[in-house]
Automatic annotation (TrEMBL):
Gene3D superfamilies, per database record: Dihydrodipicolinate Reductase, domain 2, NAD(P)-binding Rossmann-like Domain
Top-rank lineage group of the source organism: Bacteria
Protein's UniProt name: Oxidoreductase, NAD-binding domain protein
Keyword Oxidoreductase: yes
Family label: Belongs to the Gfo/Idh/MocA family.
Keywords: Oxidoreductase
Residue ranges of domain GFO/IDH/MocA-like oxidoreductase in the record: 128-246
Length: 328
């Protein structure tokens, strides 16, 4: 039985706490959050201990693993503290807001020997995982292009946008990892930022973007992002190959469709929030982490994956600002 502590009692922490508490191979031992009574309230739901002292998580000898859902600037410090204490780590993305922070800690990150996994949960979405497996099995021949569509139902608060690191670090980071999941290492990035929301423009960020990525074999991934989508949380994949095409469509609450005198095949809106759309992905991601640690296997995503995703985010930011492709 793996005793796990969760750092951060916000919405991601709540998701992970619920999954850990229901997993037969894990026990939710401790919730840590420095602000108010958030940790106490979440711990009470699951019968766990709570603390406002984050450092006590790392010195607690009963804790085997730590799930890090703290603010992004604390991801590296918390990851390193947990690893130095001999605890396995599942850390939310991104690894940092700036590659300078990664480089400053590079030696320590390279020296980490405990299992570390990063929260690129979309790799574990059943539809996306099945599509990736079909590509790997050669079901569409040689992969030629990948289309990733990721649109949010509504923009986050402007105050969040100001500290998010920008759309490419905050939102597209998942899509960069998905592109690497299919294409491997990327050699060129060309990004186009768009501004439709005056508030986000004033905050110095883009609220929509189109990014093209190319690997060394000439396979191209296109990412389409928007922070606002009237139809809901729009999440799709298309893989085009030499002998066929694979599509993963949006998930809806039901499969019911209506046809009448005004419309044909009218379906329900897309699910309206990422915690709904990716509920299975979060559950399967955490199960993969728990099973890997328990069985002594290397977790399926790594510090290197997190660094490469951030590297692509920074290249996309540079490209969108300059209007030029960035070669890696």
């Amino acid at each position: 039985m793996l005793n796990i502590a969760v750092i951060g009692a916000g919405r991601i922490g709540q998701v992970h706490a619920r999954t850990i508490a229901s997993h037969p191979g894990a026990a939710l031992a401790l919730i840590a959050d420095p602000f108010g009574d958030a940790a106490e309230k979440l711990a009470a739901v699951h019968g766990a201990r709570h603390t406002t002292d984050i450092d006590s998580v790392f010195t607690d000898g009963s804790i085997d693993a730590v799930v890090i859902g703290s603010p992004t600037p604390l991801h590296i410090p918390h990851l390193l503290a947990a690893a130095k204490a001999g605890k396995a780590v599942l850390c939310e993305k991104p690894i940092a807001l700036d590659m300078k922070d990664v480089e400053a800690a590079r030696e320590e990150l390279d020296a980490v020997s405990t299992p570390v996994m990063f929260g690129f949960n979309r790799r574990f979405d059943p539809s996306f995982a099945a599509l990736r497996a079909a590509v790997a099995d050669g079901r569409i021949g040689d992969l030629e292009s990948l289309l990733i569509i990721s649109r949010d139902p509504a923009a986050p608060p402007i105050e969040y946008v100001k500290v998010s690191g920008g759309i490419f670090r905050d939102m597209t980071i998942h899509d960069f990892d998905m592109a690497r999941f299919f294409l491997g290492d990327i050699v060129e990035v060309h990004a186009f930022g768009q501004n439709f929301d005056p508030g986000i423009t004033q905050a110095g960020d883009f609220d929509a973007a189109v990014v093209t990525l190319r690997n060394a074999d000439g396979v191209v991934a296109t990412i389409i992002n928007n922070r606002k989508c009237s139809a809901g949380y729009d999440q799709r994949l298309e893989a085009q190959g030499s002998t066929g095409t694979l599509n993963a469509d949006n998930v809806r609450a039901t499969t019911v469709r209506l046809s009448n005198g005004e419309a044909t095949d009218a379906a329900e809106p897309y699910l309206d929030f990422f915690l709904q759309r990716y509920a299975d992905a979060y559950r399967l991601e955490l199960s993969a982490f728990i099973n890997a640690v328990a069985e002594g296997r290397t977790p399926p995503t790594s510090i290197a994956d997190a660094i490469e995703a951030l590297h692509l985010a920074e290249a996309a930011t540079e490209s969108a600002r300059t209007g030029r492709a960035v070669t890696l």
